[in-house]
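User: Quick sanity check before I run a bigger batch. Here is a single chain. Can you write out its predicted 3D structure?
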Amino acid sequence: MNFESNSKKLCTKFTAGILSAILMATAFSSCRKADDIISTASDTVVTTQSGGSVTTTSSGSKGGTTTTSSGAKADPKVVKSLDGYTFTIASGWLKLEEDINENTPLTDRLFWERAHEVEKEYGCKIKAIRFYARNNDMRPYIMAGKKVADLVETMPIWLPQNISNGSYKAWDDVKGVDLNDTNTFLPYVTKLGEYNGKHYGIQFEKPGNARFCVMFNKDLLKKNGIDPDSLYTAVKNKTWTWNMLRDCAIKTTKDTNGDGIVDTYGIIGKYDYIANAILPSYGGGILTKTNGKYSYSLNSSASLAALNMYDKLVNTDKCVWVAPELLSESAYGNINENTYLQKFNSGSAAFLIWESWVLNQYTKLDAKFDYGILPLPLGDGQKEYVSPSHNTGMFCITSTNKDTDKAVVVLNALAKNYGGYKNDNEWLEDVQADYFRANDKQSLEMYKLILNSSSMDYGLAIEGLEATFYGLIRKSIYLKDTTPAAAADSYKNSFTDEINSLFN
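Assistant: Done. Predicted structure follows.
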């Protein structure tokens, strides 16, 4: 594969194998999706999948002082105690080292490269174990006083219940971690990891990963008389709205050969992804916070404006591709995500509403057309773009971790020179090379905007409420059993106790 790149780091630091195509079989490694697992309590979590230990050994503990991310010196005794120590990271998404191959995404390769440098420096061993840090999975370890792992990777969606149950320490209260070091810890993730005034989740892995956004087929737009560059201009002028997207989607939904079957659609995306995208774009939400209190808000005027636009796109304009399974209450769970991505990559849709990892793991490898990326459009009356980021990966430290001093030294060491990046501009060069066609500077600017627009709806933290939201979308918009307004209003009192218990 001819890998187009303007990044010297990406082209020279790694072998050609690193730059090869990412196979469909591994494409979802960056998708934050909780698959079911079974674990048993122990000092560290026991993985139920393909091992998890790192076989590389190293020696030569320094035994001297080391500098933390804040510039302070680590205790020499702590540094010495790392000799022979096994540092564990519990994660549902970090690629286990034994599974690394030439098709593994860049971020995971950078992690293990840095991990081996840290192992040599401190004489420790770094191990990743497969674990999803949902409340029900975490709770048995916390109740038993087990630390789970030195670092636990989670998502913002799982923070509230775990924090409510005392599973995590706030990083603000951990000595030696500088949350203000934005060259080390990604600031937009630190913001997402904030809860009730304290910071529980941080991220040092780079390049930073943008979540919900709009990807678009520039060639298909041109064929239908739409200048792709006009969309970038609209974003900058704050005129990129759902009404503008709707107009473009209608123009690109066509039966191109006159056989009565639509060949190209304006919009494609999973029904729940579109729902998650459109709701906050209008200032709506499953939950909203007013005067310090969270409350159900799917029946608010902003939320209903979003749901009505969604309904209009699907049922009035018919410019959204609808998977046949969605029209069956019993079959909707059988939809294959690859179907959406393959249709977009085949050139059958103008706009894809998804998360950005689709580009470097699918589209750049498969698509024969020119493409770009945009933030989610603005809803009526909104001034700022949003990117729902409840799937963002972030590292936490458990309240039961009695090796915090060791964890901090290794954390800072991993983060300090991650990927050899000295600043954002350097890792953004690799985003350009990894995600986009050569020199697509406009899309790179959009990518940065999306990162800085990261947002979170805590309604997704209550599993029953999340499921209700998605069911509401299916029944009112796809099955048309009711209207969005009636469906949203019918649940207004159903989750009051759970909302109050968790948030208020």
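The two ends are 54 Å apart (CA to CA).

User: Great, the batch can go ahead then.
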